[in-house]
Amino acid sequence: MSISGTTRLYVVLGDPVVQVQSPGLMNPLFAELGVDAVLVPVHAEPRHLERIVDGLKCAGNVDGIFVTVPHKAAVAGLADRRSPMVEITGSANALRREADGRWYAENFDGTGFVAGLVEAGHDPKARRVALVGAGGAGSAIAAALLAAGADRLAVCDPDTAKLAALRARLNAHWPGRTSVSAEPDTDGADIVVNATPLGLRPGDPLPFRPDRLAPRTVVADIVMKPRETRLLREAAALGHRVHYGIHMLDGQLDSYRDFFGLG
């Protein structure tokens, strides 16, 4: 990869960023397409986020911002324009500079996650799904699962105010198909999803107990590094089908190409 004064910049913001996988996917894509651009990670603590985003907006050669934990909800509020999906979910994972200099926010987490599920043979249509975590990624995944035809969706998060707000937004589009709780409700679920950061660190507790799931339940994790989290390792040992976090990012690549006009 050759970087020069003409190279366009993309960044991925997170806290931490050691786990991000997007540079390893996007930079080879830039090279394959002959696009003079590079994606680099930027460690942004929450207290500095708004200042960092403002600075990136002012940098004339920055064309796009990718967003990971824990900034997806906060970044949605820093965009000048938001897609319908961002309005529904209240979170964003990608921003692009528009021709007029304003910044437009979109969220591909949910559609990417569902695309990865379908590709792996776990289509959520007419299935019962339990989702742990109603943060930036979780809210997007919730909306995408319902849009994909999930029969029932049980979402859990200890932040009950955030849960209630998400349920209200989801019910406005898919009435009566979502239940919420502070603790995981995995009873009768065909697919159970960890949409929390639990698993990033070796000492993290499990987001839910795989030993309480029905046999052969699909257990999905959105954590990408490590690839095999403790949750997936224990679920596989119990005979459950497991679905890795990297599939969510793989499912977003075509969307990113279109969104950023990469050809």
Question: Layout of helices and strands, plus pairs?
Answer:
Elements lengths: L7 E7 L7 H12 L3 E7 L5 H10 L3 E6 L4 H5 L4 E2 L1 H6 L4 E4 L5 E4 L2 H11 L8 E5 L3 H12 L4 E5 L3 H14 L4 E4 L9 E4 L23 E4 L8 H8 L3 E3 L2 H5 L2 H7 L4
Can you walk through the features of this model?
The protein has 263 residues and is α/β, with parallel strands linked by helices. It has two domains: 100 residues, Rossmann fold; 139 residues, Rossmann fold (3-Layer(aba) Sandwich). Helices cover 34% and strands 21% of the residues. The protein has ten helices and twelve strands. The strands form two sheets. The chain has a six-stranded mixed beta sheet with strand order 2-1-3-5-6-4. Strand 8, helix 7 and strand 9 form a beta-alpha-beta unit. Helix 5 packs across helix 6. The radius of gyration is 18 Å and the shape is globular. The mean pLDDT is 96.
Strand content: 15-25%
Q: Which parts are unreliable, with pLDDT below 50 for 5 consecutive residues or more?
A: none
CATH class of the largest domain, please?
Answer: Alpha Beta
CATH architecture label of the largest domain: 3-Layer(aba) Sandwich
Supply the number of structural domains.
2
How many DSSP-defined strands? 12
